Amino acid sequence: MKKQIIAAAVAAAVAAPVLAQNATIYGTMDVGYSASKLRTDGANRNITSSGNGQGPLATSVLGVMGTEDLGGGVRAGFHIEYGLNDAASGATLNPNRHSYVFLENSKAGRLVVGQTTSAIHGIVTGFSAGFANNSVGALYTNQTQTNGTTQADYSNENGIRPHTAFQGDMISWTLPKFGNAVARVEYSRRSDDDTAGVTSRTGLGASIRYTDGPLDIGWGYQMRTEENPLTTSAGIAAALNTFLTLTGNINAIQAADVGTAGYDARTQSIALGASYNLGSVQPFLLYTTTDHTVGLGAGDREKFSNREVTEFGLRIPMGATTLFGSIYNGDINYSTVGAGNRAGSAGVDGWQVGAVHALSKRTALYAIHGNQSTGNDGNTENSARVDSKNDATSIGIRHTF
């Protein structure tokens, strides 16, 4: 009742017509203490950091969503969600999450317009034994090491998460359920005018998930392309690394490699997942692969890198406590782009264990420890960064409302 009153007040402050809708405000606050250690042999670094990190188990968010019955079995609605920083980090809002409207009908499915999670995101998170947490040692983790002197609290130098979690400028259609399967398709398109010309971005995605009692199987796909007419080598390299989610430890593109005539890049990802709930234990299996292709100037796109990672995990319920653990292993293969000479490969692996203890339906304590490493086997340009290892421990509390 209190939540509905608060939601109505928020809705009234935004726009009077919202009062006619069934609106709800919700949120998650996750605050923990984390200590992490990063060792990079080639750079002779041994860095330890600790502090009150935000969201080791789950991202802290604040959101509002509402629906309206249009009659004839049709509903309309909206969803707005912001990421939050905890008080110790400084209260700020991150708008790069949900912001969309939808129409749905049991016979026609659900049509979403705006920004929301990609179809493949539901597959990757759905088959993560560790509840898709933000700590070191899991395939899903996506905090990155950006240079040789600083590090994030939960550093995943490999950048092995295969997908972009939130996609803007998107039209998404979840088809009506057929049997035990649910399918979704999506398309996004955007062109940005700037002083350098027009940057064109296109995205496609799809997923299928089949559930039959304890059996759960899923497939997800995401393809993103970007064309950018930038005319400075530094700008081209920076934009490519951002688009391809590359970091400096393995295969980041250098300004000297790319020329000054723009680029055309594409990234394609596939995720396959399965789990089977045996009651006393639930095993998870997740396989992901990502291909990057890059074309410089008027040249055709050529394969630049490929990442393949497989993760196996277990979740064990024990009353109010759930134990989980996972281990992943994979390879990153990369080749020449432009004038670069970085053909080679790197092995990636990691593991994670943790426990979540429910104090109530809304509040839980948790502890997570993980380790991950990268073994660089042939990167001639970044040969100083040979091997890196990262481990971290987090304890904290999560509350939802």
Structure description:
The chain has 401 residues and is mainly β. The chain has a single domain, classed as Porin. The protein has a 16-stranded antiparallel β-barrel. Strand 8 and strand 9 form a beta hairpin. The longest helix has 13 residues. The chain is globular. About 10% of the residues have low confidence.
Report the sheet-strand fraction: over 45%
List the strand order in the largest sheet.
1-3-4-6-7-8-9-10-11-12-13-14-15-16-17-18
CATH class: Mainly Beta
What integer is the average pLDDT? 80
| Shape, per Cα inertia axes | globular
The low-pLDDT segments are 5-20, 143-158, 379-385
Order of H and E elements: HEEEEEEEHEEEEHHEEEEEEE
CATH architectural type? Beta Barrel
Total strand segments: 18
Measured as a percent range, the helix fraction is under 10%
CATH fold call: Porin
Distance between the termini: 12 Å
Secondary structure: elements and pairs:
Blueprint: H1 2-14, E1 22-40, E2 45-54, E3 61-71, E4 74-84, E5 93-94, E6 99-105, E7 109-117, H2 119-126, E8 166-174, E9 181-194, E10 197-212, E11 215-228, H3 233-243, H4 255-258, E12 263-276, E13 282-296, E14 302-318, E15 321-334, E16 344-358, E17 363-376, E18 387-400
Antiparallel strand pairs: 1-2, 1-3, 1-18, 3-4, 4-5, 4-6, 6-7, 7-8, 8-9, 9-10, 10-11, 11-12, 12-13, 13-14, 14-15, 15-16, 16-17, 17-18
Features:
Porin; 9% helix; 18 strands; 401 residues; mainly beta; 16-stranded antiparallel β-barrel
